[in-house]
């Protein structure tokens, strides 16, 4: 496993971060979660990403239990705040000072730790003044409950304003957590250049495009049972942009390129993400240890520029680069 600095901070994180969205507390039980976490540690993965909203807090609890007894200083634990975690009251969501302060305490309790290495705003809150949000984050850092602050799916303008306020308050905004993969490149035109300017690193989610870039969804074929895009009656969910025939056909054409790189389709997708120097880590999930072992083969891989050009040629116009297509951006007032 290779390690990279998170943005221009002094903290190293593993190139692959283990994330437990949709797995812990939903798809797999505690024993399986612990097995996957221990497999990640054995592979050299030291960075773990979760959120209080994942599985209505159960994901944080599962991760805390799975990491019990592991040397805390050898880990980088990330979590997030914004979404409601149960039956929401009027203050049980967003980035108000009240919600942030209550949420960090709950996360620390579930994660069984005194602090998190990175506390992230899971989305931007258009109902709370940014000054209130950043002051609450600054107070959490000064209280020793978080070391660094990050954001997720913020627009370039929001990132710039947040970074400026953080600097005024004497803390560091060091990361952004966006969706990023071969098919979804909306951060490349603006977010990446701005992040390089401000010293933020990307911790990207969905590097395998929710499983599509593994090649397991063949055009015109039924989705594998129990996969993300299978239905309860044995059919296939076809409404998602990744599941369109044109996309699936292009993805299948990537297989010879993965073979050329000596990687599985999944590892090839992760390796592609890691070629971007502004990416600090790619978040990978797993319900079985062998999935992590395969993903880990992407660490340290350098893909030839000619091979990267072939990826662009194969995928062509099915690649999305328009930032306006980001779902959370559409909710701006």
Number of helices: 11
Number of domains: 1
Distance between the termini: 42 Å
| CATH homology superfamily | NADP-dependent oxidoreductase domain
Beta fraction of the residues? 5-15%
Shape: globular
Largest sheet: 8 strands, parallel, barrel
Report the CATH C-level class. Answer: Alpha Beta
CATH architectural group: Alpha-Beta Barrel
Q: SSE order in H/E notation?
A: EEEHEHEHEHEHEHEHHHEHH
Measured as a percent range, the helix fraction is: 25-40%
Describe it for me?
The chain is of the alpha/beta class and 333 residues long. It is built from eleven helices and ten strands. It has one domain: NADP-dependent oxidoreductase domain (TIM Barrel, Alpha-Beta Barrel), CATH 3.20.20.100. The chain has helices at residues 30-42, 58-66, 97-111, 130-142, 156-168, 191-198, 245-252, 255-261, 265-274, 289-296, 305-315, and strands at residues 3-5, 12-14, 16-19, 47-49, 76-81, 116-121, 146-151, 173-176, 201-204, 279-284. The chain has an eight-stranded parallel barrel with strand order 3-4-5-6-7-8-9-10, surrounded by six helices. Strands 1-2 form a two-stranded antiparallel sheet. It starts with a strand and ends in an 18-residue tail after the last helix. The model has no long low-confidence stretch (mean pLDDT 93).
How is the secondary structure organized here?
Layout (H helix, E strand, L loop, with lengths): L2 E3 L6 E3 L1 E4 L10 H13 L4 E3 L8 H9 L9 E6 L15 H15 L4 E6 L8 H13 L3 E6 L4 H13 L4 E4 L14 H8 L2 E4 L40 H8 L2 H7 L3 H10 L4 E6 L4 H8 L8 H11 L18
Parallel strand pairs: 3-4, 3-10, 4-5, 5-6, 6-7, 7-8, 8-9, 9-10
Antiparallel strand pairs: 1-2
